[in-house]
Amino acid sequence: MTGHNIDVIFTPPPTPDGGLHVGHIAGPYLRADLNRRLLEAVGSPAAHVSHIDNYQTYVTKKAQQLGKETNQFRDEMTAQIGSDFDGFGIHFDQSIDNTADAYRVYLASGLAELFDNERAIRQPEIVGQDTRYGAVESFVSGTCPNCLQRAFINVCENCGSPMDLARALSPVEESTGRCEFVQVNDSRVPTAFMIDYQDIAWLQGWHLEIDSDSPSLIRLIRELEPSRIALTFRSDYGYMVTPGRVVNPWFEIFFAHCYALGQLLGLPADLSFGQLRTELSKADLRPWVTYYFGFDNSFYYGVLFPLLAHILDVPTMMPDTLKANRFLKINGAKVSSSRGNAIWARDLASRHPVATLRGALAAVTPEVAELDFHEDMLTAISSWPDPSDSARPIFDSPATLTGKNLRSTLELLSCPERFSVAELLNRIGNAVAFAESPHAFDAERVELIGMVAHLRNVLDI
User: What are the domain boundaries of the chain?
Assistant: First the structure.
């Protein structure tokens, strides 16, 4: 058992600029779903929490490319994403609507507090030829000076390092293809969030006290340098803080996660950020927060969000475990819809059963290394016993020492800091192999096969 009241597992909100591909599913979402299911199987309360990332500039950019009205396109893609998750048996215990009126009032109160923090500063910002948009996010791309990967301005998705226009090599305005930029200084609200050496020292010390299974994330934290993150920027789409100016959606995501936790714990919808903070500190249930995310989001989940929880005094939102995965590959190359190397979730779901899809992707989930997926994995026949919903009594109360040992191992493995999909599959495979070997007694054989059958039913693999 995990020894605390409830595990709350957060995954990044999908951006509704398209459907999901297998890289999305095989990364944080399937890992988090399997972790939650295993926790519940061993009797430990758990919840998987996420929402939809409605305020990203990529939404309106894609809508314009397709000649569609932005909000209609967003709603269509939100429905598609929901269908994609259903097709892979991934469900959420809490999902908020971050466009709802009550949430927007709450968000405004949280941003007001953040804007008053000394790290939020108003300084000149850079725009391209189209002065309606800041030189950030989907509006400008550049080459990362750290790893030489081409990326949009904010954070490099390849190495995870923050990258503003001043650091980017060969920046280009996406809408015009031009390389000329100018400074403007007309914002009435803070434009940047500063992370200094003192913040880095705190983050590095804090990371030593928590669990992380990603060597790349550990290296990112160890090599952190002071940085400047866009807090607000010019845009006509997003959460508006003043006319023509929106908040960086990653700051909104932090506040959305806090709000979702409050909703999960039964708090009222119409409360301010300050009230939420107070109520979370008094909540009967003690959440144990885990973040599952792709390495490209490591800076946000491993640096920005913990720092925001620290400076805004929301200790409940300090993650206890960080689970960053690498990237799935197809035909030896990273899954990328923009590069035309993707298999769409909806296409696979239309051709294969849910359990087959989940089992095949679980086998190649890129927890710590990049692994390759190919669709013929879905035609392999499993040698494991068929899933059963009638074997729960055997799983819950094994009688043999071998069965008890398996149960104990699964309880330990269910803890997010210990959880690994590869280790879970290894334990199941070893249990089946032992049950089929001449070394197992009849009672052990029956019990192990029953426990695996129940586990396959619960995990839907």
Answer: 392-459
